[in-house]
Amino acid sequence: MCSNRRVDTPLNLQRNWPSLAPRSASRWPLVFAILCLLTGIGFLLLPGSIEGKALAALHGLCAQQPDHSFYFGDQRLPFDARMTGIYGGFAVTALYLLARGRWRRGNVPSITVTALLASFILVLGIDGVNSTLRDIGLGYAYEPLNELRLATGMLTGTTLAIFIWMMIAQVGFAGRARVQRSPVAGIADLGLLLAVEAVVAATILAGWSVLRLPLTFVLLLSAVAAVTGLTLAFVLLLGRREARAVATTDLAGPATVALLVALLLIGALGGGRFLLEWWLGIEPVVRSAA
């Protein structure tokens, strides 16, 4: 005797996982917006200073060494100089690409641009190794400077943002909805982007006290956006929803899941570091700013 009862095979599950199909897309942008709003309100309502809460929230993503950080008056940014550069560069690059209308562009840049983007990571690695050698008392090539940490970090943040940008376009959007062009048009385009980043870097180095809170929130948002962007690709692949979005709103459901995972991951990394510091008897670097 045949039954019309549907069996939840893996294929059926992946089609409905987790009810993120395009037919449900209309409500997911609202859900995503509410989650963002509640996260922001929750952060603001937590006890403690903004600096202390930001340092605690990002405790698992950065060493937060006080002598490697930028100070605005008597308070500092939640990331040290290198991570400030990475997430600052990520934010500037993402905003630049949005402003230039590069959304859905997923093609790899030219060989020259790709080589330059790869070299940015290499430069950060060299500067990071030199700084580490200095910190542990071994021979080093040059005196580490926070200005260099910021600059090499911003270059790497540029590469990270472009990589995530292309990955979302390729994994998220259907072929007919994807723009078959690179997010970076060429050397001149990359040069303009780096010029914008140089202005931002100079603004950070100015150390104006009025900029501390805005920069703190930009770094917080940038960190969450970067982790969410990386997580989104895995959510789409695990849910077998890759290359199906026709409109940006079709990604709202997976993006909501990715944001939740990103928040949990950032919280787990921070909590894990606090727990390890407590176990080892190490004074957390955020305690003085709480």
Topology:
Blueprint: H1 10-16, H2 28-45, H3 50-57, E1 71-72, E2 75-76, H4 81-99, H5 111-135, H6 146-172, H7 187-206, H8 212-238, H9 252-280
Antiparallel strand pairs: 1-2
Helix pairs in contact: 2-9, 3-8, 4-6, 4-7, 4-8, 5-6, 6-7, 6-8, 8-9
Give structural notes.
The structure is a single chain. The chain has 290 residues and is an all-alpha fold. It has one domain. 62% of the residues lie in helices and 1% in strands. The protein contains nine helices and two strands; from the N terminus they run αααββαααααα. A two-stranded antiparallel ribbon has the order 1-2. β1 and β2 form a beta hairpin. α4 crosses α6, α4 packs across α7 and α6 crosses α7. The chain is globular, with a radius of gyration of 21 Å. The relative contact order is 0.17.
Summary tags:
single chain; 290 residues; mainly alpha; two-stranded antiparallel ribbon; 9 helices; 2 strands; globular; disordered N terminus
At a glance:
Helices cover 62% and strands 1% of the residues.
Give me the secondary-structure category. Answer: mainly alpha
How many separate structural domains?
A: 1
Q: Report the uncertain regions.
A: 1-25
Across the major sheet, the strand order is 1-2
Helix content: 55-70%
Largest sheet: 2 strands, antiparallel
Strand content: under 5%
Determine the N-to-C terminus distance.
68 Å
Order of helices and strands: HHHEEHHHHHH
What's the rounded overall pLDDT mean? 89
Morphology: globular
How many E strands? 2
User: Helical element count?
Assistant: 9
From the alpha carbons, calculate the radius of gyration and give it in angstroms. Answer: 21 Å
